[in-house]
Design brief:
Helices cover 27% and strands 29% of the residues. It is of the alpha+beta class.
Length: 157
């Protein structure tokens, strides 16, 4: 009977192997060229590169990286089953059972975000050249009264 109680307690303690071994949050790292760019996510995180922030393993979001003088970039961050998460999830078959599997699935402990790290190279904003100033119009010289030569009189001596 003591063995049965011990096995039951061990099963409960070890239930949800991925949740125990991997946790329910993940660190997302963002690196940009140039550095010191502003990062804003669609789920409310913000920082200045290079930086790291924490998110729920279940979170999918868009990270917008921007810096004055550069075109902003939107990077979609998705989730997928991680290799270690799958192993922990499978470990539930041996120890945690259906309860452990349910906990891991509900908490997202088997997931990871990608890309991680987020690495971007921001492109400078194209400068638009102002049109060249128009050349001043060359005006034809208009003869004035002083310029009129009386050709009837012939050469003067």
């Amino acid at each position: 009977m003591k063995q049965l109680v011990f096995v039951a307690l061990a099963g409960v303690a070890l239930a949800s192997c991925s949740t125990v071994t991997r946790g329910t949050t993940n660190q997302i790292q963002v690196v940009s060229t140039p550095s010191e760019a502003h990062v804003q996510t669609s789920i409310g995180n913000s920082c200045t590169t290079p930086c790291t922030f924490q998110v729920s393993r279940k979170s999918e979001f868009v990270a917008t990286i921007s810096k004055e003088g550069y075109q902003p970039m939107d990077v979609p961050v998705k989730t997928r089953v991680a290799g270690a998460g799958a192993a922990g999830f499978a470990g539930n078959l041996l120890v945690g059972g259906v309860v452990g599997m349910g906990v891991d699935a509900a908490t997202g402990a088997t997931l990871e975000q990608y890309p991680n790290p987020i690495t971007v190279t921001l492109q400078p904003v194209a400068t638009v050249k102002a049109p060249a100033a128009p050349h001043p119009k060359r005006h034809k010289r208009v003869a004035s009264a002083n310029d009129v030569v009386d050709r009837r009189s012939g050469p003067t001596s």
